[in-house]
Specification:
The chain has no helices and 6 strands. It has 123 residues and is mainly beta. The chain has one domain (23-110). It is elongated and about 60 Å long. It starts with 8 loop residues before the first strand and ends in a 13-residue tail after the last strand.
Amino acid sequence: MIGRKAITMREILYKKMTSGKDKRKLMSIIERSEDKECKTYIRKNFIYIVSAADKVEEVPDPEIFINKCRDSKTQIEKFSFKVKGVFYITKDERIAKVRFCHNLHIDLTWKTKVAFPKPVTPP
């Protein structure tokens, strides 16, 4: 006999916008899902801004931002991750500087009381 699987409602929205004037491209993916344990909202954004460059300059390390919070009273967990940086590309002997920003946001709303595990601390 095969066991039953929990039914999950899932909705995905994909957006892609390009601005030729500003040399900007934005891609966004939004996902909402719900099952018997929690509601999940995930948003991913990818932004690229292109500009002409005369030469390739030293590329700094990307900036990384991470944020996590949880509220045991409301049973909500939030996580965000952002990376900002620069890279260069060449095409037809021309150099372009590309600034980028990638974002990931995850919101979890638990329907039942969840005991959050204690964070692991190194010895």
